[in-house]
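**Protein record**
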Amino acid sequence: MKQRIRRRYLFFLVFLILVLFSINYSYLDRAVQNFIYGRESYEPAFVSRVIDGDTLETESGGKIRLLGINTPEKGEKYYEEARNFLENKTLNKTILLEFSKDKYDKYGRVLAYVHLNEENVNLEVVKNGFANYYFPSGKDINYNKFVITWMECISKDINLCKKSEDKCSECIELKNFDYRKEELVFYNKCDFSCNLNKWEIKDEGRKKFIFGEFILEINREFVIKTGNGTDTENTLFWRNETYVWTGTGDSLFLRDANGNLVLWRRY
């Protein structure tokens, strides 16, 4: 009698497990994955294509936009190098995706930190000078890691972190960075004039101001404002932008005509 009850109990238990498994397979599958990989909330994905330096495509998850970084656009300096770097790191490999507060961007791409062989690939792209850090939705728990990694890259003086050798790179000071008023004030502290033709100012993302033929005289300052005003001798306008600097935090990167870094500031 006891043996019959035991068999019925065992049968019921197996039946219950099968029902739970069929109802909640995805949960159990994720639990098994987490156990294997040792990381909760990380999702494995196989990389089938690398689109550019900060975007790849997976077999199961579609397009993945790497969080925390911004690499050069097609036609810009280091575009190919950034793409090749990410391709060599991830193509035809299984990566782990770590998500932050927003899982999708406005283009429907998945936003994620990519992990492979105990490395944060996003950080590696910055570390090797193929991206600046980029947090358009506001700073998350990883923000400081990316700023520190950017500073390490600057100390190596490589690629996007390479310091300008233009003689005027030591002359130009950022006297004021008022992101609320969308206003920048630069100053020439040297005893010679500086031609800033083809120099550029960029935020963390894609917004860019490129200087035309502009001479900054000795001990003079000039202002750059966002808007469609009329340029004067001491004021230039960053046109066709309603705003450049975000309220959640941003950075300014000033580069010379060769694309090398003159200065950067963050808030």
In short: Residues 163-266 form a domain with the Immunoglobulin-like fold (CATH 2.60.40.1260). Residues 16-39 have pLDDT under 50 and may be disordered.
